[in-house]
Design brief:
This protein is α/β, with parallel strands linked by helices. It has one domain. It is globular. It starts with a strand and ends in a 5-residue tail after the last helix. Bound molecules: uridine-5'-diphosphate. The site of uridine-5'-diphosphate has 14 residues, from helix 9.
């Protein structure tokens, strides 16, 4: 049974990092593919304003709170989730766990050369982690069949899909039943971080819920997109105060 916290009509799993990792091991033991998404405030706002996105998120098998904004929203609504479970930290914890409890990963997404670079770093940083295959995230519709065959024949258990949001969530939803992996994780910029191409925000920013500020400083062109963060918080305050019906 899932322990759910409903935020603006979107069902977020109330899980600690450790529980989230365990849940993925449960998926690996099962006989079907599971969709796992890690919405931040931007994706939550997409879900609120776009019915199709809301349905995609609510059809996931696991939806964890990626980002201080989603955790804050749960607090505002008086049903606080256990902790922030960001996509990148979830993947790092799984890679670490896989040295004792083997998992085969397939790395899908990022610019050409990036998943291969991520693979090389994983081999050094996570001894025992097994990468069954890699594929960059730039492809045409005609390539999809071959990509899916490549993933399926690799024997991977866990597929990391790093195509950015909402492309990765749409791709997983569309191909969920054709994939033989046991869990497909939509984890955005994780490939760039594993490849060492993009740096995680320093601990101060991560520990104080200010990762968005660091990201804005690094990528000012994201400003417009990031306005969805305050919009999301105001929306949730509106729900709490009874001004917003959803
Ligand atoms: N990406 C990809 N294929 C695409 C578009 C993007 O593989 O068609 C990759 C991109 O190279 C980057 C990742 O998706 O590594 C995340 O992109 P972005 O930072 O825009 O996504 P977000 O952080 O919003 O999830």
């Amino acid at each position: 049974m899932r322990k759910i916290v409903e935020i603006a009509g979107i069902n977020i799993d109330d899980l600690s990092m450790e529980e989230a990792v365990e849940k993925i091991y449960e998926f690996i033991e099962s006989d079907k593919n599971h969709a796992v998404y890690t919405p931040n405030a931007e994706i939550m706002m997409d879900g609120i304003t776009n019915k199709e996105m809301k349905a995609i998120l609510n059809n996931a098998d696991m939806l964890v709170a990626d980002g201080a904004g989603v955790v804050l929203a749960s607090k505002i609504l008086g049903k606080e989730v256990a902790e922030k479970v960001s996509g990148v930290d979830l993947v790092k914890n799984l890679l670490t766990a896989s040295s004792k409890r083997p998992v085969k990963f397939f790395l899908f997404g990022g610019k050409p050369g990036i998943p291969e670079k991520a693979n090389a770093n994983i081999v050094c940083d996570y001894p025992g982690a097994e990468i069954a295959g890699t594929r960059n995230g730039y492809f045409s519709k005609e390539d999809e069949e071959a990509i899916i065959n490549e993933i399926n024949s690799s024997g991977a258990d866990v597929l990391l899909v790093c195509l950015g949001a909402p492309k990765q969530e749409l791709w997983i939803t569309e191909n969920r039943d054709r994939l033989k992996v046991k869990a497909s994780l939509g984890v955005g910029g994780t490939m760039d971080i594993l490849a060492g191409n993009v740096k995680l925000a320093p601990d101060f920013f991560r520990n104080h819920g200010l990762e968005w500020l660091y990201r804005l400083y690094k990528e000012p062109k994201r400003f417009k997109r990031m306005l969805r963060l305050p919009k999301f918080i105001f929306y949730v305050i509106g729900i709490r105060l009874g001004f917003v019906k959803h």
